[in-house]
Amino acid sequence: MKKEEVFRLLEQHLLKDDRPAVFIDKLDREGILKRVEPFNLLVQLKKVEQDEKHHPEGNVWNHTLLVVDEAAKRRSLSREPRAFMWGALLHDLGKLRTTAVRKGRITAYDHDKIGGIMAEEFLSHFELEEKLVLRIVSLVKWHMQVLFVVKGLPFAAVEDMLQEIEAEEVALLALCDRLGRGGLTEEIKEKEEKDVKKFLQVCRGVERERMT
């Protein structure tokens, strides 16, 4: 199967299935992802472990499939569902290059920034409109901003983010990212939704300041 065909089939399921992860897993079990570049990058996510405290579902592949299914539940809320779903699939590619064990902990510092670069590399294998590529790359690049803003971390860069992508789109992907994990309780889910709302409030404040 050629890469263009895999892309087309995958996109079709990303945009139509209630659970796109079922089809993605099927492509993996048939060995198609492993054999076809750049989709082999996705399979490599199986080897990337995560901090069990924050990701009891296990490796980045498991997490990605959960996030894609969460995104499918909400794609109708996105301004650009096509970009949104590809952003969900590619959002943690950067962990391939950034994951390391530091002081006994598994970390993936800057995986959002590196992920943006890797997403662009991934998409360069296909003839896609520049606007779509830039939107997907921006979603990947900025998907950690909710966490950074809510925790008051120095990596927060709302003004820069807003020059590339709408806060609502980042918030939507970030919510899927946070809910695409194992062992979530209703209390944790409510907290994640509150954090997203807090992030959007901060972004709206920044937008108001830019208009004055």
Automatic annotation (TrEMBL):
<dbReference type="Pfam" id="PF01966">
    <property type="entry name" value="HD"/>
</dbReference>
<keyword id="KW-0547">Nucleotide-binding</keyword>
<dbReference type="InterPro" id="IPR006675">
    <property type="entry name" value="HDIG_dom"/>
</dbReference>
<dbReference type="InterPro" id="IPR003607">
    <property type="entry name" value="HD/PDEase_dom"/>
</dbReference>
<dbReference type="GO" id="GO:0000166">
    <property type="term" value="F:nucleotide binding"/>
</dbReference>
<protein>
    <submittedName>
        <fullName>HDIG domain-containing protein</fullName>
    </submittedName>
</protein>
<dbReference type="InterPro" id="IPR050124">
    <property type="entry name" value="tRNA_CCA-adding_enzyme"/>
</dbReference>
<feature type="domain" description="HD">
    <location>
        <begin position="62"/>
        <end position="144"/>
    </location>
</feature>
<dbReference type="InterPro" id="IPR006674">
    <property type="entry name" value="HD_domain"/>
</dbReference>
